[in-house]
Amino acid sequence: MSDIFIRNAWFDTLFATDGLYWMGQNTNHLPPHPEVLAALNRSVARAEFNAYAPPLGFESLRKAIVADAGLDGVEAMVTDGGVNALSMICRARCRPGTSFVTTDPSWKWPCQFAEQMGSMVIQIPIWRAETRYRLTPDALAAAVDDRTAIIYLVDPNNPLGVSYSEQELAAFIAIARRHNALLVHDCTYRDFAAEHAAALGLDQQHVVMSVSFSKWLGLAGLRVGALIASRELLAELAPFNSGVLGASVVAQRAAEAGLKVKASWMATLRAIDARNKDRIAAAVAAIPGLALPVFPSGGNFLVIEVSEAGVRPEALVECYLRRGIQIRQGAYHTATFGDRFVKVSTSVPEPWAETFSALLPEMVEQARKLTDFRQPF
């Protein structure tokens, strides 16, 4: 059977598992805000889903997204999740003979989109304590040349959680300008970072920004995100959107309602997320061989390094799954460093994080001995 069918069956089984603790996809599983539920219910009750949305998204939502980003002189385009915005950019800019430069680890799907368009993908290793697990301007400059179409930066990084300062972003932008490359600033996790700078606020000619409502607002299954760019760049990129009939009407209503209550919602969410991270960090510190290479993480997740504990990430994933908890193996993000770590989501109900932490010693011991396990996706 082809991997695509095996992978689908795998996730279908997970989705059908009652009471599963979703702690591997960086999704938000806290109860939704009442205003968001009300917006969803109103939209469904009015049967708004019978009609297509405007191709760039509802004007009110587009304006709200720009306002939330805190930027002037730019436009927003609503997309079927942040991933569709990234696919559109790759379709527009990547061609045979060009390169797509990103980090290792990074988020895998834009790399695949670039390869599909014929670009050569160059991944710069950042799993290095000496650089604090982050991309440096020198490393980026060495990988970028006049063939580079896109520099793709996930900030905070998925999965490591490192975030970049305005000074670092300015250095990356200077490299993009020098080679007329497009810096794609994927800000999916920006709302969880203690501080976050928008590269688009420094340059609107060589930078675009992607955002998502999957993580902070918990709308992963509704599929809504956005691309933010100058009017000129958006006009260039929008024709390459595969979702030419607009994003989900119902999802857009939920997104707009979420933006209206974002300040209070994020205060609650970030407090829970921080407590969950502290619980997991304490559990990790108590087990020899385990480590958190980046703490605190700027995303709603933690990377736990397991290689020094004699544990295979896939074995630990299997042990937790047998107890109804889904976490993710490092190989999902990187072939080079995937045998070193697992990733655990933290924007989840506190009892989930408590259970994960309490089980960690037992799960590590079981994983050390486990040789027969399913290959996760």
Automatic annotation (TrEMBL):
Which InterPro entries does UniProt cross-reference here? Aminotransferase_I/II_large (IPR004839), AspAT/PAT-like (IPR050596), NHTrfase_class1_PyrdxlP-BS (IPR004838), PyrdxlP-dep_Trfase (IPR015424), PyrdxlP-dep_Trfase_major (IPR015421), PyrdxlP-dep_Trfase_small (IPR015422)
Q: Does the keyword Transferase apply?
A: yes
Q: Which PROSITE patterns match?
A: AA_TRANSFER_CLASS_1
Aminotransferase class I/classII large domain: residues covered: 23-345
Q: Which CDD domains match?
A: AAT_like
Q: Which residues form the signal peptide?
A: none
Obligatory cofactor(s): pyridoxal 5'-phosphate
What's the Enzyme Commission number for this chain?
A: 2.6.1.-
Q: From which domain of life does this come?
A: Bacteria
Q: Name one Pfam family in it.
A: Aminotran_1_2
Any one of the GO BP annotations: amino acid metabolic process
Can you say what this protein is called? Answer: Aminotransferase
* SUPFAM superfamilies (alphabetical): PLP-dependent transferases (SSF53383)
Q: State the family named in the UniProt similarity comment for this chain.
A: Belongs to the class-I pyridoxal-phosphate-dependent aminotransferase family.
One annotated GO molecular function: transaminase activity
Q: Does the keyword Transferase apply?
A: yes
- According to its UniProt record, this protein's enzyme class is transferase
Cited Gene3D superfamilies: Aspartate Aminotransferase, domain 1 (3.90.1150.10), Type I PLP-dependent aspartate aminotransferase-like (Major domain) (3.40.640.10)
Alphabetized, the UniProt keywords read: Aminotransferase, Pyridoxal phosphate, Transferase
